[in-house]
Amino acid sequence: MASAAYFIKEGGIAGDHITIYEELEVAGGSLDGSGSAEKGYILRGGRMLNFSYVCTYDLFSFIPSLTNPAVTVYDEIRAFNKKIKTHANARVIADGKIEDVSLMDFSNQDRLDLIEMMAVSEEYLGSKRIDDWFEDDFFKTNFWYMWDTMFAFQPWHSAVEFKRYLHRFLHEFERINTLAGVDRTPYNQYDSLVKPLIKWLQDQGVNFKMGAEVTDVDFTNFRGTEMVDCLHYIQNKNKKEVHFSANDLLLVTIGSMTADSSLGSMSSAPKLITDKTDGSWKLWHSITKQSPLFGRPFIFDSRIDESKWESFTVTCQGTEFFDLMEQFTDNVAGTGGLVTFKDSNWLMSIVLPHQPHFIDQPKEVTVFWGYGLFPDNEGNYVKKQMSDCSGAEIMQELLGHLHFDEATEYLLKTSICIPCMLPYITSQFLTRVKGDRPQVVPENYKNIAFIGQFAEVPEDVVFTVEYSVRTAQTAVYTLLGLDKKPTPMYHGDQHLSVLFDAAKTLLT
Ligand SMILES: Cc1cc2nc3c(=O)[nH]c(=O)nc-3n(C[C@H](O)[C@H](O)[C@H](O)COP(=O)(O)OP(=O)(O)OC[C@H]3O[C@@H](n4cnc5c(N)ncnc54)[C@H](O)[C@@H]3O)c2cc1C
Q1: Taking the model in full, what pTM does it have?
Q2: Residue 426: phi, psi to the nearest 5?
Q3: Cβ pair 269, 387 in contact under 8 A
Q4: Integer-rounded Cα radius of gyration of the chain
Q5: How far is residue 399's CA from residue 223's CA, in Å, rounded to a whole number?
Q6: 251-310 pLDDT, tens per residue?
Q7: How far is the CA of 383 from the centre of ligand 1 (A)?
Q8: Cis bond leading into 458, ω under 30°?
Q9: Residues with CB under 6 A from ligand 1
């Protein structure tokens, strides 16, 4: 959708010349928000944004807000964050008590290892894992607990990506214990970002073909250049083809962190789907048969044990849970960022967003979101793997960590917790080497581009909305041959004040 917006805004392409093929019945991909107060709301994920999301903010600086079309979505986000400021007072909890995380707990060796990692090249790091680089104790520091749960890194993830994050978010180093640099959207990202973007695209005449799974792409060699020739897709069980002329362009989102996600309920655990029912990975595999330049999807989709975790959304009738959390953390909902339970075997974290979090959310209802990074471990209070737990059991485990014993029975009766298994959620963080991800526009190809989390963009970091929008800008400007570059990245590591503050955090 970001690409379509840039084709129109920067490329001057008429909206009705653009078609989006989406296999689901709803657009927006990972940026979802659905359900109801009666049956329970569902968020597979919740997004932290940052002022350095320059491409994302550029996109939303020309998309009118749904609630007030006189302002843009970007204006709305800025105004919201001026009013509701994040400053976590209870970033990490252990044994039902707030931990002091003002210091990072680094050893001198950790400091040296961090500095050295930032200095060496990506080629040098190659396919190393993070735990190939750091001593075991690094993974017990306050820094690791906060960085790891803020961005969802695991010790076995790519050292290259970790290094990119250190550079990319160096400006967040000094406030990682309060998350004061986090921007939020007024509502969940489906309501705040996706809905206005869809409306704007529809107003421009963009065609949305829903329930249309793209299955393959054919190429032909035209005067020495590789060109897309035909697109294959299935809609309503019918196989269809779109034939390309020399002027047609194709942008493909390859892979997806939310592919094959599945939901549980208050009484059932979600299933772990491993046989690729959604189209994103299948399509990438089909396309790679045509050229080694199109990357290696099996690097990212064949290690589910290293890429899965589980999230959950809780809908409460009433404000009791939120009131107890406010008393405990001294944070009003929306200002606390992330609360992590350090001694949780599942490494559980929760986020209480500003309410209402859904546009249609009734006043007496409250909604929050959480996740566990180790779903295969047995809980501390519920002696089962998180992946085998129903929503009620996940809620019980959470209330155990909070020591909200007296309120447990009431909260369990008045809440709906919907768990969600995400087999590929950190697939983009898995160890990789050059060539595993294709260039946005591969060499010698003129009418195809790869967008999303698995295309290669120098320096920027995956598991962000920003990365997807950056690939969209890159694809549109390159394919149209525009004299325009993607919005320049913010380089905190080139600002003396950022370096000074980061050094202070590192050394104290
Ligand atoms: C739990 C969670 C937490 C997150 N936290 C943050 C955060 O704090 N900050 C942040 O910036 N980002 C965060 N993200 C990441 C961010 O949401 C994603 O990076 C971004 O939304 C990816 O968007 P995308 O459109 O590139 O890909 P996707 O969201 O994967 O969308 C791809 C779309 O293409 C469709 N599709 C795929 N293959 C086919 C096919 N063959 N045919 C037809 N349609 C197809 C899919 O159905 C889907 O709708 C988080 C994501 C999750 C899930």
Answers
A1: 0.97
A2: -115, 25
A3: yes
A4: 23
A5: 66
A6: 999 999 999 999 999 999 999 999 999 999 999 999 999 999 999 999 999 999 999 999
A7: 33
A8: no
A9: 21-24, 29-31, 44-45, 47-48, 213-214, 253, 256-258, 279-280, 283, 311, 425, 452-453, 463-466, 468
